[in-house]
Amino acid sequence: KKRPASKPIPVLLADAYALEQIVQNPSRQVRLLTEAFWPGPLTIVWPKVPGLPEAVSSEPTVGVRVPDHEFARQLLRRVGPLAVSSANRSGAATTRTAREVLAQLSGRIHLVIDGGISSGRRPSTVVGFEGKEFKILRQGPIRAEEIQRVLG
Predict the structure, then answer these.
(1) List of residues 6+ apart from 25 with CB closer than 8 A
(2) What superfamily in CATH does domain 11-151 come from?
(3) β-strand 61-65 against 133-138: which pairing, if any?
(4) What is the pLDDT of residues 83-118, one digit of tens each?
(5) In the prediction, which pLDDT does 2 show?
(6) CA distances from residue 96 to 19, 73, 99 in whole angstroms, order as listed
(7) What is the full DSSP assignment across 68-130?
């Protein structure tokens, strides 16, 4: 993928109940966002639990998301949270099908599971927190105004 090794890898969860396996003491604000936008295109960056491998995030925080894709959530229910990067070359166009993934990454990956067409046309919105204030770290389908409306 040509992804920088220092770039943290987000963790996909089956549902919000798995959140505390990956992050420490999620705040009320985090809970409000998960209720409003999960499953969906929102990645939340929050302090990680002790013992989370450095390969996932060498930072004190980690990004977590519940995908809006039933097959992916079924897989996550069976195997648990997974650290995954997007299924495209770093900086390349977003892929939506197994065929597109293979076109970009063939020979660089060992397995592609075809779970149908992904609904994601754009990368997820990534939100972090500085104290009680949220900060958009990457703009995606969910706008700051929508997040602010949920958080009050």
Answers:
(1) 47
(2) DHBP synthase (3.90.870.10)
(3) unpaired
(4) 998 777 877 888 889 999 999 888 888 888 888 888
(5) 62
(6) 26, 17, 8
(7) S-HHHHHHHHHH--EE---SS-TTSPPP-SHHHHHHHHTTT-S----------SSPPEEEEEE
**C-alpha span between 42 and 2 (Å, rounded):** 24
For residue 94, the model assigns a pLDDT of 84
Do the strands 42-47 and 125-130 form a parallel or antiparallel pair, or are they unpaired?
Answer: parallel
Q: Is 11 exposed, middle or buried (0-12, 13-18, 19+ CB in 10 A)?
A: buried
What residues are paired with 23 via a beta bridge?
A: 48
Instruction: Show Cβ contacts of residue 119 under 8 Å, excluding neighbours closer than 6 positions.
Output: 68, 69
Helix or strand run (H / E) with residue 150? helix 144-151
146: three-class secondary structure by DSSP: helix
Those residues whose C-beta lies under 8 Å from the C-beta of residue 76, and which sit 6 or more positions away, are: 12, 13, 14, 18, 67, 82
Which residue ranges make up each domain of the chain? 11-151
List, for residues 25-71, the tens digit of each pLDDT value: 999 999 999 999 999 999 999 999 999 998 899 999 999 999 999 99
Are residues 68 and 40 in contact, defined by beta-carbon separation less than 8 angstroms?
yes
